[in-house]
Amino acid sequence: MMGSIDPILLIASLMVASTPILLAAIGELVTEKAGVLNLGVEGMMIVGAIAGFAMAVETGSPLMGFLGAALAGAALSLIFAFLTQVLLSNQVATGLALTLFGIGFSALIGQGYTGVRPPPTPKMDFGPLSDIPVIGPMLLRHDPMVYVSILIIAAVWAFLKFTRAGLVLRAVGESHDAAHALGYKVVRLRVLAIAFGGACAGLGGAYLSLVRVPQWTEGMTAGAGWIALAIVVFASWRPWRVLAGAYLFGGVTVLQLNLQAAGVAIPVQYLSMAPYLITILVLVLISADRRRAAQNAPASLGRVFHASS
Amino acid sequence: MTGTETAQLLTIRGLTKAYPGVIANSDVSFSVAPGEVHALLGENGAGKSTLVKAIYGLVRPDAGEMRMRGEVYAPSEPRAARAAGVAMVFQHFSLFEALNVAENVALGMETPPRQRELSAKIRAVSEAYGLPLDPSRLVGDLSAGERQRVEIIRCLLQDPKLLIMDEPTSVLTPQEVEILFATLRQLSAEGTAILYISHKLEEIRSLCDSATILRRGKVVATCTPREVSARDLAEMMVGTALTPPARAPRTDWAGAPALEVTGLSVASPMPFGTSLKNVGFAVARGEVLGIAGVAGNGQDELLLALSGELKSAPGMVRAAGVDLGDKGPNDRRRAGFVVAPEERLGHAAAPGMSLVENALLSGAIRMGLVRRGFIDWAATRAFAEGVVRDYDVRTPGTHVAARALSGGNLQKFVIGRELSQEPAVIVINQPTWGVDASAAAAIRQVILDRAAAGAAVVVISQDLDELMEIADRFAALNEGRLSVPRPVQGLTMEEIGLMMGGAHGMHVPEIGAAHLLHAEAADAEA
Amino acid sequence: MLKLERRPAPSRLWTAATPVLAVIATMIAGGLLFAALGKDPVEAIRTIFWDPLFGEFASYSRPQLLVKAGPLILIAIGLSLGFKAQVWNIGAEGQYMMGALFGAATGLAFYPTDSVLLFPAMVVMGAFGGFLWAMIPAVLKLRFGTSEILVSLMLVYVAQHIMSAASFGMLKNPEGMGFPGSRNFQHYPAAFNGELIAGTGMHWGGVAALGAVVAAYVLLSRHILGFHIRVAGEAPRAARFAGVSPALLTSVCLGTSGALAGLAGLFEVTGPAGQITTDFASGYGFTAIIVAFLGRLHPVGILLAGLLMALTYIGGELAQLTLNLPSAAVQAFQGMLLFFLLAFDVLANFRIRLAGRARA
Known about the structure:
The complex is a heterotrimer of chains A (309), B (526) and C (360).
Chain A: H1 7-33, H2 41-59, H3 62-86, H4 91-109, H5 135-139, H6 144-162, H7 164-174, H8 176-181, H9 186-212, H10 224-234, H11 239-261, H12 268-288, H13 290-296
Helix pairs in contact in A: 1-6, 1-9, 1-10, 1-11, 2-3, 2-4, 2-9, 2-10, 3-4, 3-9, 6-7, 6-11, 10-11, 10-12, 11-12
Chain B: H1 3-7, E1 10-19, E2 22-32, E3 37-41, H2 48-55, E4 63-68, E5 71-72, H3 78-83, E6 86-89, H4 101-107, H5 115-128, H6 144-156, E7 162-166, H7 174-189, E8 193-198, H8 201-207, E9 210-215, E10 218-223, H9 230-238, E11 259-266, E12 276-283, E13 288-292, H10 299-307, E14 317-319, E15 322-323, H11 329-334, E16 337-340, H12 355-363, E17 370-371, E18 374-375, H13 377-390, H14 407-419, E19 425-429, H15 437-452, E20 456-460, H16 464-470, E21 473-478, E22 481-482, E23 486-487, H17 493-499, H18 514-525
Parallel strand pairs in B: 3-8, 3-9, 6-7, 7-8, 13-20, 13-21, 16-19, 19-20
Antiparallel strand pairs in B: 1-2, 1-4, 4-5, 9-10, 11-12, 11-14, 14-15, 17-18, 21-22, 21-23
Helix pairs in contact in B: 4-5, 4-6, 12-13, 12-14, 13-14, 14-15
Chain C: E1 2-6, H1 12-36, H2 41-49, H3 51-54, H4 58-84, H5 92-109, H6 118-144, H7 148-168, H8 204-222, H9 224-234, H10 236-241, H11 246-270, H12 284-294, H13 299-323, H14 328-349, E2 350-354
Antiparallel strand pairs in C: 1-2
């Protein structure tokens, strides 16, 4: 029975299954590195999913779809940014509001798009490279967004590690009071980080509706945004570990789907729980070492910044 | 433009800044010459911080004029101030614990060199000035004194014309203070002007060339500190003559020590905290034990371990013969053991809650304010009103939020709340931190009165003068270890400094260290 | 430039006024949204907020108000305790399902008894189910420091799948001709939670909700535990100083909110819903978050907010029928309400001033 699962196809499909979470998680990582906890990832993802879908269907271009999704995600995140950074609202409550609003709003604009097929996203053409045995079918026959997502990870890593702006971003997330005292624009930087997070979440959502599924259904993110939040914790706020975490979850998802298809004697419902249960398990494992978890977290995460002087 | 003005580095005229309900600076004028060490002296709330924030570009004045070498100087942000050659060593809030020394330094510079070069530079300059630092260490792992070195190095690397230092000695041992002063004198000799903010009179007398004294936002006097006595300086600063607290003659109370701490070792709950290692002391009834130490050497942990917020093993803490080592705060209160933490807003009191609610916070047990889980609000209100009355807390009423009180009044309320519970043992961390002089004097007096009435008192403080004034015996925390307590009578500053850990690896700066900086600056320009 | 100045204490006037302002702003923004969808905004707003109470179908929709408000209030009261203490249970939807499942399973296990003890036993089991589900994030948080936000939320999806598994498996009606779903409690009098007063929509769930409002009010204003909950939210370190055990408080807050959500689920499954089905979940657990905030985390406020939110549900259904307004519109509407509420909150906590740029 396990023999019916081809490891090459499994890895190939886990890369596709992981990409939405990967995109959303790397965006949230940047937001959190700046000291902002945005729990609205799920909402931004699903709005990205419908915005990208609608844009792609109307223009016939998946590229326009992804662009539209990134813009929509960023636009939605700016509501969050305005509320938390300018009006100093509670980040947890505002993030929840963003998710609840996003789910309702996406269903509303998605009315006319149920059952429509989006234009197909073409695969990358690596020429003869994609015919290399094992590596070709496993890694080199995907759509561009899979590679873009990995490039984003690399870019975020380099940005945080090597650039001055990255250093300032980390500093703001570490202590907004100290950053302010040195003259850095805490609010401006955070708004930018939030918008980046929103754009990435939007891309992730669009990948779901345009490539992974590909169609539009209400509530189709089904907790992917929350899993992305968990992955940021799992990754201890390090970019490459986000990749590892997302692929791990993608693997679990694909595996359980394969098991379902293979007709294992476990009720479908129990298999479908697996990604969520694994998320909890991984959170437990990663949080168990409290001191380490505390040291890696940006120290100002979730705290309201108000320059009193 | 007059000749004297161009001779001055910084001239401030008529600077005014008002916040809602308070005028922080009113028509302040003074000037600083190149190489001058100029003191800004004043109590808490006198307007010193606002003034230097204006010079550093963090606050925009409402009115007035600043000139740098005769040119109009109006920095819109710290960047502009740094570009004009102003650097500042903050008292709080300007380091990042999770970043390393080099990254912290880079964040305070306009155009930092690459990491490797910067690290080499930090090493060289820190050695030359007697402030050794490892650029790759996380700031969170550094002691308070070392953190200050990071700030100073960050400023020095910019080759500043004016260096602002905000209460720099509160985190140093007496030995470290001497070395810091040597560094500052050297900088001044090299032509750097220093604006030195403090409320410590002896320091100002030994270091500064001139002083501007602020009271309630106004300049009340200018003087040459060396020519004025500390007593006169104090009177100028406070506005009235202060009487030191009166001590009742010591009664010898019979019986065992009221508080015994033996072999107390606990891990710090904070990410960059200091664990306590085998701390032991005993305090008799009627006695005041003073515990000194530079910030971050385990004071917060000691307070938590004594209050019961941090539990230790059985037998490590005993009050009035009762073993409280593994007991929580309320069991300790039942045994007559009360505590007043350092941080008033957020720890000793809930900022957004009323004084009545804050009275309930720690008074519930001993004052019998809760019956079968239900709160007796009338009794609680009466208790709060009693504290406000007996300890002279200035407030419109007990219904106002703790946050609305001034630091001194809230501290009087917090200390009064604990002292009016008829405690047998009292532990207070930083009783007069950030409190104005008259409130501080009142607080010290009530502590002494309570000791005279038979309570055992432990005062943890970074203010050595305060401890010398009220303590019978003295001990110091250094890296989580407590020195053996010694009678205050006859202790010298030197001995106290050694108990606090001495110079922590600092040494007197090399003569001519400045060439390092200037050479670098010349390199950069070339 | 606008400048915010923190008030020494939150303004009581604005704290009470912001929910009203938020509702008005939502009506305006919602009207614009509906206009964009090509509907008459005034009519849409009237259909949602006015018609359910006073329109031509009011006699049908009025009882629905209590039916819908009951679970919302019950859940929101529990959540508000946690939110006050900064314990973020956002998985009430899962606890609601598990309460329904535990309670229903208890009832169905004794089918077809007519014991009067059955319903009380089901109530207890329903509360227990929700409690148990909420204690998972509590225990994991205390033991390992995991975020209760993420764990409680993940458990919603897990509960959803368990619910689905139960209606296809364990609890499937043996006489249901193969359709998924349990027996209907309407045909099981000992376990049925019917209307207590005909035509009002008041069932035991409504009674429990009112009881919870009163109990929470007393707890928060008179009891030391309520005081500790408030201190923990206001200043966690001060709470520890006062001798509050964070572990105990986390357990109490999560456990209570779970039990109340479980109760809501039990009353729903044995009454208005009637049976366990795959689509039993109705979003009450999430909407209750909005109710809790809209009610300012105050029991009486939550009572009013719960009624208002129930109104938007019913009005939304009505608008769907009469104006062909998509059902998702109400959800977007509710989310918007929370946005406006959070935005207007700034007025309660800060004074807003125009910062003059006066410089000499």
